[in-house]
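fyi for ur records
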Amino acid sequence: MDSITQAALGATIGGAVAGRSLGRAAFVGGALLGTLPDMDVVLDYGSAIANFTQHRGFSHSLFVLVPLGVVMALAFHRWKPQLSLARWLTFTLLILVTHPLLDCLTTYGTQLFWPIGPPLGTTSIFIIDPLYTLPLLTAVIIGLCKPPAPRAQSVALALSSLYLVWALGAQAVVDQRVEHRLAEQGLADAPRMVQPMPFTTLLWRVTVLGADERLEIVTGPLEGDQPLTVERFPRDPVLYDRLSGFPEGQRLIWFTKGFLDVFEQDGRLLATDIRLGVPGAHPFTFVIARRNGHDQWAATTSTQEPRPTMRNDALRAFWSRLTGEAEVLCMATFEALPAGETCS
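which gave:
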């Protein structure tokens, strides 16, 4: 999740656990501790793909955070013994561990068991979701103004947790809704990803990987029997195989579970993470190799391409689809259409 959300979650937990003893310091300390795992963004691992795939790595691993939490609790207890060691352990461990657990619900993925195992991500909540964050921020403001306000912290944690339960349920409903349509097309077992559209859990994007094409569907858990609009994007298996021949390409495939758009441009082999952003505005595209002959490719230290910009009316189109004013949202062009029309 975004840093503001992680800080708000840490502060709320800090206030709930230690607010009575530490007052405002519990909220401030909780916010700082809640953002600590994301400090790995300042590290440079030597290439764009290394930086991309090693974020949320060791700093989000339970094998690192649990021992760190114990050590910090022991140190804090010596500094402020008025809070029992058990309370300090609850304070540090809850704040540190809930950070990667929350990140696991997003699309980016979290290496929760680094250095073993792949990144984990349920793709159940967008990295910025106001409905999750606002109760936490409200509780923090109340706690800072009138500490310790334990009831506000408890209510906020309950509401935000219930929202996560709703997100998981909504995701299951959407997945079941598209399953029948995919089965009709022989894609019931094809890799698919169901994730919320930006800032909401009322509208979801379903991405399906076929042999030589990718399907995109936008629908919601409350849309009942509304017809599904399926958009198709070409997928080049030859270039995908070529990508897998390079070490950094293999790393990217491992990290994204293969949800990539691989293409050639100006003698360069590029790969785009299609999980993040939307078609036409995916933020992460990497140069993997360069052509040095008719069909010869040479690996290069990966670099990241500039992020594309969304069209000016994209927000209006998204809002029209979210509110039901439009029933179709074309991912290729990001324009909203009335019922009965199809994407070109």
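The longest helix spans residues 150-184. thats all i got for now
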